[in-house]
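Replying to the earlier thread about multi-chain prediction with a worked example.

Input:
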Amino acid sequence: MNKINLEQKLGLFSDYWSPKIVGELNGQLIKLAKFKGEFVRHKHDNEDEFFYVIKGVLKIELPDKEVTINEGEFIIIPRGIEHKPVAEEEVHVLLFEPETTLNTGDTTNELTKEIPERI
Amino acid sequence: MNKINLEQKLGLFSDYWSPKIVGELNGQLIKLAKFKGEFVRHKHDNEDEFFYVIKGVLKIELPDKEVTINEGEFIIIPRGIEHKPVAEEEVHVLLFEPETTLNTGDTTNELTKEIPERI
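Result:
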């Protein structure tokens, strides 16, 4: 039972769109990720998704609007809602999600990470 | 589906040891709290607990050691482990826990918040 320092963990990887597991509790995973560029539009049929911006600016394109999430802000995307994350510059995010969540949701392509790495 | 700004939400309350609900997903709650002073030693029989320090320094007394959690750090306390949070100065924390989690766990006293407020 040791504390986790987000900055230290963020220094351990540099690949984009590849969430790393940094904690686990109650069937949920705590993940850190770096985003840059445009991700694939997707949805999760059975999981709500949480994005907290640690550093940078994250835009999320939703069916009816675009939301800009700044440092110190989070958004919850309910299950079933299509969304497309876009990071014009590098963004660092904290994710809380069930163990079952696949990063690309109902879309499978070269960005899909079937088994996220633990760091 | 709107973004949540932690600083804005933290500005809405000033009471200590009284977590406020700011988000909900997958049967879990996102809460914000301010701590100052010593909390009651307690444990949660069925829930793991997550403390992320947004501002300040949080000490947690565990059965065999004390952990100091600084800004940008988190700790997960596994279910069944006794812990006593201590904040020498005001601390702002983000909590991520199941809807069933009671702040004082297996201990009930004047600090117990049966129904956390939503802000």
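The first strand of chain B starts at residue 4 and ends at 5.

Feel free to reuse this layout for your own posts.
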